[in-house]
Specification:
By secondary structure, the protein is α+β, with helices and mostly antiparallel strands. Helices cover about 25% and strands about 20% of the residues. The protein contains 15 helices and 21 strands.
Length: about 550
């Protein structure tokens, strides 16, 4: 998941804040979190995608309030995230060397309207995700179930996805094109949410989805609001991953970030029961500087997305691996920390690997040892050995035009200049960035600056989307245009390994092999900070992902 909103401008005044977010207790409140009340969620985004086929939502965030999936995650501060059942009785039973996976639904599952949830509904939900009109969601399952994406969905001729079988109302069997050890994790992505068979043909299904989770969407108006109320057919006794404490959840959408800041810092009226969905902004953190109450209500993750600089391996002098390796030494990662968040403590640790902390298979290593501020002399030496004693000129670096990216790009630009690498920054809005950087097969940019949060807690989700050759263009995220047939084969081999420990070793080896080619420069493992009102409690951020677990928090009663 390309992580576009991450904390910027964090001030030194908040350096001593805890970075665990564990069982956060509201400031100035004497009670404990109990079921009941209305939680207010403040968001600067104008809309939320409630259609599971179109969503890339993580298990712990908004979509999971309405839709359940076959599997889920057990998330807690200070421990690795593990896979657990959700709609299914277990986390899947692999056979045929990992090419076949079987799941059985729990007894008595019902939608909010009282109708039973059947295995054919899970299959139908997946089939919808293949239709062009419902694209945009996570797609880890698609090539596994339809190689080459030959299947086009159920709405053109009523065709079924033959690789998914439902022999009875509770059993669903997946026949994959190849062995895939992480398929139980893939079954926790949004497309594995049930949709009643035959429903959801309309493009706006997401405005009135049929709920399987603890809440149902009572009302939704883009740019303004959404209201969730309890699903009367959901049971806390049966669903072990969601506490679903509030009776009602009110989303206020399209809010100005400055207004959100002031409301949460002031902490009055209904805003005492509010949570800021977007990462803490510079305005918030400036206000927090002298506000002990607000400072106690800021929760920061242990780690998070990988922020990185992509080097276009198919463009100009960057085709030369030695030229690309020079960038590893030229970049000042300490300056990037300051530009990102004011201090290393809240920006996140310097990154030297592709796999982020908290994922099995991660080895800590450093192929390009240098001080956090870089080694310009070493960079110049490598450039000279590559035939560029005078450095490089005329490079263009694309980045996002908001959320602090221009400032971060300027820090990268300045550090490259020390090694006689001259780059011009081209900020782009999100739509243009997607079309010009991710959709085009051949990019017009030499460098891109962005970040990546894995969609599932597996090294697979760190490596495959960013470095497999099939992810170049067409909306993929291989922004370095890195194409290595040997790496592609090793990715498929690691994906086919069912034993997690053995797969972890293969992903760790891939991490080093890819970074030896230097298609990207890892910068930092970003930390995320969130602010909430004083009546909101149990605000928890686990080791993965670096987002508050919406399933757990609630209001002090």
């Amino acid at each position: 998941m390309k992580q576009l909103r991450f904390a910027v401008g964090v001030l030194a005044a908040v350096m001593l804040l805890t970075a665990c977010g564990a069982n956060d207790t509201p400031a100035g409140q004497g009670g404990t979190v109990k079921p009941g009340g209305t939680l207010v969620l403040l968001n600067d985004a104008p809309s939320i995608t409630w259609d599971p086929a179109k969503s890339s939502n993580l298990v712990v965030t908004t979509l999971g309030l309405i839709h359940r999936r076959l599997t889920s995650w057990d998330v807690a501060p200070g421990k690795d995230t593990t896979i657990v059942p959700d709609l299914a009785t277990d986390t899947g039973r692999p056979s045929d060397g990992g090419k076949t996976w079987t799941f059985t639904l729990k007894d008595g599952l019902k939608y909010a309207d009282g109708t039973p949830i059947k295995s054919e509904d899970v299959k139908w939900g997946l089939e919808r995700s293949f239709a062009a009109a419902f694209s945009g969601g996570l797609a880890y399952h698609k090539d596994l179930l339809s190689p080459g994406l030959a299947y086009k969905g159920p709405f053109d001729g009523g065709k079924e996805l033959d690789t998914v079988q439902t022999p009875d109302a509770k059993t669903i069997v997946f026949h994959l094109a190849r062995a895939y050890g992480d398929f139980n994790w893939v079954a926790s992505t949004p497309a594995f949410s049930p949709v009643p068979k035959g429903k959801g043909a309309e493009a706006n299904y997401g405005d009135h989805p049929v709920a399987s989770g603890p809440y149902q969407l009572q009302s939704y108006e883009r740019g303004k609001s959404a209201k969730l109320t309890r699903n009367p057919n959901w049971s806390r006794d049966e669903d072990k991953t969601r506490l679903a404490n509030p009776d009602t959840i009110d989303f206020e959408l399209g809010q100005d970030t400055g207004v959100i800041s002031k409301r949460l810092v002031d902490d009055t009226g209904k805003d005492r029961a509010a949570f800021g969905m977007t990462f803490a902004s510079p305005a918030q953190l400036a206000q927090i500087q002298g506000n002990a109450s607000a400072k106690s209500r800021l929760v920061t993750s242990e780690s998070g997305a990988l922020a990185y600089l992509s080097l276009n391996t198919q463009r100009g002098n960057l085709k030369n691996p030695k030229v690309r390796q020079a960038f590893q030494y030229a970049v000042d990662k300490a300056a990037f920390q300051v530009a990102s968040a004011g201090s290393p403590q809240l920006a996140g640790d310097v990154a030297t690997t592709l796999i982020t902390p908290g994922l099995q298979g991660r080895d800590q290593y450093d192929l390009y040892p240098a001080p956090p501020s870089g080694d310009p002399a070493k960079a110049k030496q490598l450039l000279a050995e590559a035939g560029f004693p005078n450095g490089l000129d005329g490079l263009v670096m694309a980045t996002h035009n908001e959320r602090g990216f221009p400032e971060k790009a300027a820090a990268i630009q300045a550090s490259l200049a020390r090694a006689n690498i001259k780059a011009t920054i081209k900020p782009l809005d999100d739509d243009t960035y997607t079309s010009e950087v991710d959709t085009k097969g051949l990019s017009d940019f030499d460098l891109t600056l962005t970040s990546w949060q894995p969609d599932i807690p597996s090294a697979n989700a760190n490596i495959q989307p960013l470095f497999q050759s099939t992810e170049i263009g067409n909306g993929g995220y291989n922004e370095s245009r890195y194409s290595n047939p040997e790496v592609d084969a090793l990715i498929a081999e690691a994906q086919a390994t069912v034993d997690p420990a053995e797969a972890g070793k293969k992903w760790a080896a891939l991490d080093k092999k890819i970074l030896a080619d230097s298609p990207v420069v890892p910068l930092i493992y970003t930390r995320n900070s969130f602010l909430h009102g004083s009546q909101v409690g149990d605000v928890r951020i686990g080791r993965f992902p670096a987002y508050v677990d919406y399933r757990k928090f609630g209001l002090v009663q």
